[in-house]
What does this fold into?
Amino acid sequence: QVQLVESGGGLVQAGDSLRLSCAASGRTFSSYAMGWFRQAPGKEREFVAAISRYGSRTYYADSVKGRFTISRDNAKSAVYLQMRSLKPEDTANYYCAATPYTTGLMTSPTSYDYWGQGTQVTVPS
It folds into this structure.
C-alpha cells in the first residue's frame, strides 16, 4: 500500500512556471514507477508524464514535451513535476500515481494502483 499526497498547485499566469510535488508513504517508494495525470472539468483523465523506479527513464505526453519535467527523489519518497511555459490548456487537477508495473512506462490510468487526491492548477486565458 502506498499513500500519495500532492502539493504545489495554484493560480498562475500564462508563461509562468510551477513545481508540483507528490509525497509518498507506506511501502518502499522505489518499488514503484510513478506517473502524473491531469483531468480538466468534463474531460477524461489524461497522461502527462511517467518515470521509472530509479529515474533513468521518463516519458511525456506530446502536449507537455519540452515544457514539463518529471523527476523523483527516492531518498525523500517524492516525485516532482516541473512545469514551464504554462498555457491555459494546462488548467486541470493534477494527480500523481504509483504503479507496480516496472518493465515499461505506463500511460494508461488503469495501470496505476495508487492515486493521490490531486492538486489544482489554473492558468487563466
Q: What stands out?
A: The radius of gyration is 13 Å.
